[in-house]
Design goal:
204 residues; mainly alpha; single chain
Length: 204
Amino acid sequence: MIFDPQHRKDNRSARVSMALFRISQAIKKVTQAESDALGLSPVQIQALLFAAYTRSDVATVGNFAGAIGTTHVTAVKIINGLVGKGLVSKAQKPEDRRVTLLNLTAEGRVIVSQLNHWGRSLEEALGSIPDEALADFELGLGAIISAMQQRGQLVVAEPCLGCMHFHPNAGDAAAPHYCGLVQKYLTHEASLQECPEHTPSIEV
């Protein structure tokens, strides 16, 4: 058990796990304080950022639930709260009316434009660490994220480049790229947004 100091004493995995837990607690505290200033909860801000930076055709309620690791019912409640505030709008996906797409309203985009500071405290804390140590830390975190992703405990959304489904420069000037997963051509701008279905073309 990672909370037992005697167990951590001779177990590196337990020590790292405890360190990550403590960091997660600190992140929760920082993001809560930064969210309070906007009159929103951290998870509501996550929903706004999801709608802002996720490719529009995959910015669904279901993918949002997966991104934050919650149930579909809870995700719907979060989104409905933002709809009530006039920050998010919902629309049925043309190809499948059972799927709900999320979009920012004009007021929602204003809020997102004010989120440049959200998470900055964490970035500033890491900025004080020497680059060589930070590079090693990044590699280690990448391995942890990959392991948790393979266990189905984490969803990692990334832009199209590097995804096995992405075929660059396969279309025309208006929509130059092609996604083999959704079988549609994408604008260059869309390819730069995050996709919850991103699958690395080369296993790390």
